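Morning. Coffee machine broken again, so started the prediction first thing and wrote up yesterday's gels while waiting. Chain of 202 residues, entered below exactly as on the submission form.
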Amino acid sequence: MYFISTGGKKSWSESRQDCRGRGADLVIINSREEQNFIEILRRGQRAWIGLTDSEKEGAWKWVDGSALITGLWGSDEPNGAAGDEDCVVTGDKSDPVNNWADYPCNDRFVWICEKSIFEFILNNMGSSRAWIGLTDSDMEGVWKWVDGSALTTEFWAQGEPNDQNNEDCGEIVNVLNKKGWNDRPCSYKEGWICEKSVSVVN
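Came back before lunch.
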């Protein structure tokens, strides 16, 4: 879930504080497809994203601590042109994809927040358990999504998956002592969560 600021411009740290106050964080962009969507969202403005090298010069990291793998930098970026440029905006160049640039973190821009869909689902579930499109029925221990793709991010609850009683299907659970994914026998009856792909048109 994404949302762009509407209340003026802030520094990178102030922007991140605003996002975190909403239960989110500055956006992490992991693909060209996501960048294309952000391009529509930012409406022609430079916008802070959740990327910084403030801990170590040249070692770019996302706000979740993960290292930058592929950057969509504009030409001649990052360049540290103003000296201490440790934070990143998207939308600095005319290229719709490769337009990131480093800026001083105290400069003021609009910002884009991203809220984890996992956290959103946990906080808005109508029941304590619901099926998700995750299974290891093809090969025990090899968890895949229903579209055949492998896991890249995992949110298993503590001690899970444990494969008690032939548990080959995945659910999301939100009870007092367990929050996250859990494996369960596929024959159990419970609610479910659907996802529908949408096309974004400019």
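The longest helix spans residues 32-42. Going to sketch it on the whiteboard this afternoon.
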